[in-house]
Structures are given as structure tokens and as C-alpha cells.
Specification:
By secondary structure, the chain is an all-beta fold. Helices cover about 0% and strands about 55% of the residues. It has strands at about 1-5, 15-20, 25, 30-35, 40-45, 50-55, 55-65, 65-75, 80-85, 90-95, 100-105, 120, 130, 135-140, 150-155, 155-160, 160-165, 175-180, 185-190.
């Protein structure tokens, strides 16, 4: 895999910024990358007016404070095989519909100091405003975790499916999963630890 490392004076908002003419970053693929940074920048983020659609981000490692931010809007994306081994504040911040997040592993590295959850799935603000039809599966959040954090937060979601979660909230604020302002069904199946 390729290593992307920021300089000590890096001041950008993201190491990789997803942007495209017309406002749609579509059918993109980022894979087999290892991100290293001590800055407050995200490893990967979409530009403020860019929708990320039908794209794949997979086999990514993070020795960073922030991992992936797809907050303008993401739809039909696959985010798979993420590994965090650094000073993690937030690994994934996602807004959008019908995305699949599969294979997240955070068990090493430093815990981070903010109250931001390691994974945040939040309402996107377009149309009906909830983030709907998203699926999170095979999520492992354990080891060194911050006492100030919830591991996963669903905020303004609908029809969310969670399968095979291994969460150790005893090392955090006591909550492995928080569900707030989510009025539709949330399904929990498979291994729940």
C-alpha cells in the first residue's frame, strides 16, 4: 500500500479532497492507502459542495486524528476494511443514504481527547433530511478508547442496519451506541458484544 504523510506544517482540511466538476464525485475508488498525520486534517473528505456517489473507499489504514468525512452527501458508497492505529478522534463522519460500511477495526493507538464519537452517522439535510438505508457491519471498537466518547452515534437516521458489532464501551463514556432523533427502524443483528 502507498503511504501518504503530511508535513508538520500541513494546514489543509484533508489529505485527499474529493471534488468534481458539476458537484458529483462518482464511481471513484480509493484503496490500499496508509495515512499518517499529526494535524487536525481529515485523511479523506468531500469538498463542501460535492456529493460522493457510487464510490468505494477500502483497505485504508489511519495513523491520524481524523479518518473519513463524507458530510455534504454520500449515496450508494462502500467504505470497507478500515484500520486505525493512531491518535484517533473520529474515524468516520457520514451523511447520506444507502451506504455500506464494512470491516472497521480500532483497537490500538491513542484514544483521542474530544467528545466526538468514533463513528457518526448523521442526518444529511436534503429532502426528508434523515440519512436512510445505511448499513454498518463487522465493526470492532475496543482497546484504547477515550472516556469522553461514545463509540457509535446515529443522529437523525432512518432504516439503519447494524450487524456484528464488537464494542467495548466500558473504556468510554459507557455508551457503545447512541441513537438520537432517529424515528425510523434501527435493526441490530448478528454478534453484539
Amino acid at each position: 500500500s502507498a503511504h501518504l504523510v503530511t508535513a508538520s506544517n500541513f494546514a489543509g482540511t484533508a489529505m485527499v479532497l474529493l471534488s468534481a466538476p458539476g458537484g458529483y464525485y462518482a464511481h471513484g475508488c480509493l484503496e490500499d492507502l496508509d495515512f499518517v498525520s499529526t494535524s487536525a486534517a481529515w485523511a479523506i473528505a468531500n469538498a463542501p459542495t460535492t456529493r460522493t456517489v457510487n464510490s468505494t473507499l477500502q483497505r485504508l489504514a489511519f495513523n491520524t486524528r481524523y479518518g473519513i468525512r463524507l458530510t455534504y452527501y454520500a449515496q450508494m458508497c462502500t467504505i470497507a476494511d478500515l484500520f486505525s492505529y493512531g491518535p484517533l478522534e473520529q474515524l468516520l463522519y457520514l451523511r447520506g443514504n444507502f451506504n455500506v460500511v464494512r470491516g472497521v477495526n480500532k483497537e490500538g493507538g491513542e484514544a483521542g481527547v474530544t467528545t466526538e464519537p468514533y463513528i457518526l452517522l448523521e442526518a444529511h439535510g436534503f429532502g426528508a433530511e434523515t440519512s436512510s438505508g445505511n448499513r454498518l457491519e463487522r465493526i470492532l471498537l475496543e482497546g484504547v478508547c477515550s472516556a469522553a466518547k461514545t463509540l457509535i452515534t446515529l443522529e437523525g437516521t432512518d432504516d439503519t442496519q447494524l450487524q456484528d458489532l464488537w464494542l467495548e464501551p466500558s473504556a468510554t463514556d459507557g455508551y457503545g451506541l447512541r441513537i438520537r432523533h432517529s424515528y425510523g427502524q434501527t435493526s441490530l443483528t448478528g454478534l453484539l458484544h
